[in-house]
Write a structure and sequence with these properties.
By secondary structure, the protein is of the alpha+beta class. Helices cover 23% and strands 36% of the residues. It is elongated and about 50 Å long. The termini are far apart.
Length: 225
């Protein structure tokens, strides 16, 4: 009889411990501080570039950072359009895509550049990953280069790099919020370009280098016109 009482007492104690554990786990869901996911940032590298001579190389990267947040946050497709000053520099066909959406294998993503507006200073690019979402998430870092541009100087002056359209989606096709930063290039000018250059740079900075929040629209498997 005593053994039965001891066994029953032990069972009740275990039951109480189990209930307490479940209760604490449930409460932790409500009282632990929330963990915010990352928001992708689209930006140029460098954000401000100056060349001393018109003939000097002008290499600018378009980057994404802030990926891999707890809300998903890996990039599955992107569409970007931006403007530059064609009286100061030209683009030709000098565009090279990064490997963040294809794990280093070009056939693992579709890549497209529309040069039809390049003469007027407009460029369109988009890329869609063909990788399995889980493979993409495991191979993609929190930041990488979307594309690299090799501009050719045309005349002395300043050119803004103004992002006009940005559409992003994650590895599962969900729309992604984002922020962006515009850029600036000074061709045939020393850094800052003297007093006049500093004034022009300040004007361009106020006009072009803002950070804005948007919503994306493009999904993997689709290409916006």
């Amino acid at each position: 009889m005593n053994i039965q009482k001891i066994a029953a007492y032990g069972f009740n104690q275990n039951l109480k411990t189990t209930k307490l554990t479940v209760l604490l786990a449930a409460l932790s869901v409500f009282f632990l501080p929330p963990r915010a996911g990352a928001i992708p940032i689209i930006s140029f590298e460098p954000e401000a570039l100056y060349t001393r001579n018109v003939s000097d190389p002008i290499v600018v990267k378009l980057n994404v950072s802030g990926l891999g947040g707890l809300d998903g946050g890996y990039l599955g497709a992107w569409l970007i359009e931006f403007e530059f000053n064609p009286l100061v520099m030209t683009i030709g066909d000098g565009v090279l895509f990064g490997n963040g959406l294809n794990d280093g294998v070009p056939d693992n993503s579709t890549q497209f550049v529309d040069f039809s507006g390049a003469a007027a200073g407009r460029l369109h690019l988009d890329e869609i990953s063909l990788l399995d979402p889980l493979v993409l998430a495991s191979s993609q870092g929190d930041s990488f280069t979307l594309a690299t541009f090799n501009f050719t100087g045309y005349s002395v002056g300043y050119s803004g790099l103004k992002l006009t359209t940005i559409d992003l989606s994650d590895e599962f096709g969900n729309v992604m919020p984002f922020q962006y930063r515009n850029g600036l290039v000074g061709v045939g000018l020393p850094e800052g370009g003297g007093t006049l250059g500093l004034l022009a740079c300040s004007i361009f900075s106020v006009f072009l280098l803002g950070i804005f929040s948007q919503r994306s629209r493009v999904f993997p498997g689709e290409r916006s016109a």
